[in-house]
Amino acid sequence: MQIISTSATYDHAGFMAAVACAERRAPHSYFDQHVIEDPEIGYFAIDEGDYDALPITIIDRVVHTVPGGMADKF
């Protein structure tokens, strides 16, 4: 796994917690789960389905993506 961090201090535990959250949610979602890096609060996971289209300010801070696990095609 490649870790891309733009902040001066890297919070490995926070990153791994956000990845774990995204991996838990992904199998039950149609949408990708993204780990976002925020300089003030650290790392957090979001569901792409919570947004109509991800704003560029969020896209620029995506450091990891877990594909959604549910398929809408039968």
What this model shows, in words?
There is one protein chain. The chain has 74 residues and is of the alpha+beta class. It has one domain. It has a 3-stranded antiparallel sheet, covered by helices on one side. The N and C termini lie far apart (32 Å).
List the helices and strands and how they pair.
Blueprint: H1 12-25, E1 33-38, E2 42-47, H2 56-59, E3 62-66
Antiparallel strand pairs: 1-2, 1-3
Q: Strand arrangement, largest sheet? A: 2-1-3
Q: How many domain regions?
A: 1
Please identify the oligomeric state: single chain
Structural class comes to alpha+beta
Tell me, rounded to a whole number, the average pLDDT: 86
User: What portion of the residues fall into strands of 2 or more residues?
Assistant: 15-25%
Distance between the termini: 32 Å
Strand tally is 3
**Helical residue percent?**
10-25%
The SSE string, one letter per element, is HEEHE
What Rg is obtained from the alpha carbons, in whole angstroms?
A: 13 Å
Bulk shape: flat
Helical segment count: 2
Largest sheet: 3 strands, antiparallel
Unreliable stretches covering 5 or more consecutive residues = none
List the main descriptive attributes of the protein structure presented here.
flat, 3-stranded antiparallel beta sheet, 2 helices, 74 residues, alpha+beta
Give the gist of this structure.
This protein has 74 residues and is α+β, with helices and mostly antiparallel strands. It has helices at 12-25, 56-59, and strands at residues 33-38, 42-47, 62-66. The protein starts with 11 loop residues before the first helix and ends in an 8-residue tail after the last strand.
